# Entry
Amino acid sequence: MKGRKAVAERFTFKSHLLTGIVVLLPISLLLLVLVWLYSILDNIISPYVTFYDAPGIVEVAAVLALLVLVLFLVGVSARTKPGRWTILNLERHVFSYLPGYRTIKQILEPFIGKSFTKSFKSVALVDLWDNGMLMTAFVTDRAKGYITVFVPTGPNPTSGNIYHVPDKRVRFIDAKVDTVLTSVISVGAGSHKLIERLKK
# Structure
């Protein structure tokens, strides 16, 4: 009996350890990429800052501003036909071999661009426990008598839980998905507008 218990504990520890690695690996990879980009941009700007003898805070602010600009331009170019072609080939021949890339893409894809309408059909307030307490949710699928919803956690909407809820407990909201995401990211700020938009 003790042997079985020890095996179960080892299995549980291993499972939790692997889960932690899976969760942290994509985040770590993303941070490494951002740090790498920051380092490259810093090396470009640093000589100009040194030449003009500007304070260090100016250098940091300039690098961060340039980093945001680079990310913005990449996002804009990714929406063009040549940009999509380039990214598709980079994914096939480069990015797909990076550890954690596919995981990051799968996590973020439902929250980017046109994937909104594909992943989230509509938004609603859900009374999960049938006690009058409402939770912000995205409707992802339907079945006879039940509605599948994704309830995000704030301020990070990429994490949350999936529930299959009786349709009588789901109250649809006349609001856009990106509007509700903004409320989730701001940990509920402006949610009074969602309650006011409950469909009668």
Summary: The chain has two domains: 2-110, 115-196. Residues 2-51 form the longest helix (50 residues). The chain is about 55% helix and 15% strand.
